[in-house]
Design brief:
With about 450 residues, the protein is mostly beta strands. The strands form 7 sheets. Strands 11, 12, 13, 14, 15, 16, 17, 18, 20 and 21 form a 10-stranded mixed β-sheet that branches. Strands 4-1-10-6 form a 4-stranded mixed β-sheet. A 4-stranded antiparallel β-sheet has the order 3-2-5-7, with no helix packed on it. The protein contains 4 helices and 29 strands. The protein is about 10% helix and about 35% strand.
């Protein structure tokens, strides 16, 4: 006998890791090569699993199988590696005993494959989510200086069922979150072999193969939401959850537009990610401003695919009563419309949600038509507007200090600033059609 039949499954839900030879674009290809016991002599040919995750391997290609499932460095992995994976990794790093990760989740956190979950793994998850990193820098193929030996990093790891059943390293530490010298914890993560010896039993009359199943883990996908992927990259969505890029409440001032981004969810939210393209003829990316406290975040405008990506998480629940973030663009136009943002995707707690882009925002016009004087001032600020509007005076933290509603165009109004401390303030001028901002200085 020379044909060894086995199967591949995903750790989170036991679903088969498939490949459709008739339609190769349906699933990421998985190649099973032959190899020697030292994992140093890869066979020239490979076999692939079928739609049930089963494969048949010819033992004459080597006594071990080397299972490879790798992602192009230019591919966006944000749908499956994002802020929620970073959130769970952070909980492990701070010894949060209320979160008990499976061994598969723990292996998925150790993206650099050095046997320890560290801040370096967390940093790499964040960078990979926004496509700063084209691959994880792993201990086996990158030196301490970050130089690669030329071999591509692993995106998927596989462990055989025999090892899972017999190796105590795959059982959680009895002292978790602390190590016990045997089971897994953040300081003792099982490191997977890249190839697996085929279980063979010989007798005087024949060779018999053992039954084996290989469980796959996508590095960085700590919560296992790869399981929500269906053919052609579609994801299941929850109609009750939504992210809104709200142009109707954007602020256009001094050559910038600040677009608030809101989220609605029936659950508490601890991570938020988005990706979007934008009209580069009108907009250029400036910053993403976090509006919740204690957020850990990272943004990146990837020039290869002209996409802005953002990832964030917090150990505290996000306040959904206000905008989660503000996206700031420099703009050459006084009007920004829905079509200026395209291919927008968003994720709450790692899961894809509905996205809407609302409305149009224009500036009131040339700032000279908002006449504020004297500026600086010490006691009285005079305001004359070119359109009917309302005004708010805000401090630099965004707190509203003073409000004057329904001011008529081309009439002078006085704001008493005598009781205000010296400093820089912002005058917000708005009506049903537009918003503008002007800097005000108070000197005593």
């Amino acid at each position: 006998e020379s044909a060894f039949t086995s199967s591949l499954k995903f750790w989170f839900d036991g679903s088969p890791i498939r490949y459709n030879a008739a339609i190769p674009t349906d699933y990421l290809i998985t190649n099973i090569y032959g190899d020697n016991l030292a994992c140093s002599n890869l066979s020239a040919t490979a076999v692939q699993p079928d739609l049930a995750g089963n494969f048949s391997y010819d033992i004459t290609n080597g006594p071990s199988v080397n299972i490879q499932k790798d992602i192009l460095g230019t591919t966006s992995v944000q749908p499956v590696v994002n802020g929620f994976d970073a959130f769970l990794t952070r909980r492990v790093l701070i010894n949060d005993a209320t979160y008990i990760p499976s061994v598969y989740a723990m292996v998925s956190m150790d993206v650099n494959i050095d046997g320890v979950v560290s801040a370096g793994d967390l940093s790499q998850i964040n960078q990979r989510a926004v496509l700063i990193l084209d691959e994880f820098r792993q201990a086996w193929n990158y030196n301490a200086g970050g130089v690669s030996n030329g071999q591509p990093s692993k995106d998927w790891l596989f462990v055989d069922q025999t090892t899972l059943n017999s190796d105590p390293a795959y059982i959680i530490s009895s002292l978790y979150p602390f190590p016990d010298g045997s089971g897994y914890s953040k300081s003792s993560v099982p490191v997977q072999s890249f190839c697996h010896e085929v279980p063979v039993f010989t007798s005087p009359s024949c060779t018999v193969f053992g039954i084996e199943t290989y469980t796959g883990m996508l590095l960085g996908d700590v919560n296992g939401n790869y399981a929500t992927v269906v053919p052609n990259g579609a994801f299941r969505t929850d109609a009750s959850e939504k992210v809104t890029f709200d142009l109707t409440n954007a602020i256009v001032a001094d050559g910038y537009i600040d677009v608030p981004v809101y989220a609605s969810s029936t659950e508490v939210v601890n991570s938020f990610d988005f990706a979007t393209k934008f009209n580069t003829g009108k907009l250029s990316f400036s910053a993403v401003i976090d509006n919740n406290k204690n957020m850990e975040s990272l943004s990146n405008l990837n020039t290869a695919d002209n996409t802005l990506r953002y990832t964030s998480y917090s150990l505290q629940n996000y306040d959904l009563a206000k905008s989660i973030v503000t996206v700031r663009f420099a703009t050459t136009s006084n009007q920004v419309v829905e079509s200026d943002l395209s291919n927008v995707e968003a994720y709450l707690n790692g899961e894809v949600v509905r996205v809407e882009v609302l409305g149009t925002r224009s500036a009131l016009g040339n700032n000279a038509l908002i006449n504020v004087y004297p500026n600086p001032t010490n006691s009285v600020l005079n305001v004359v507007l070119s359109e009917n509007a309302s005004v708010e005076l805000l401090d630099m933290s965004g707190k509203v200090i003073m409000v004057k509603n329904d001011l008529n165009a081309f009439q002078k109004y006085e704001l008493n600033t005598q009781s205000l401390a010296s400093g820089v303030y912002m005058l917000k001028v708005y009506n049903n059609n537009s918003v503008d901002m002007k800097k005000v200085v108070i000197q005593k």
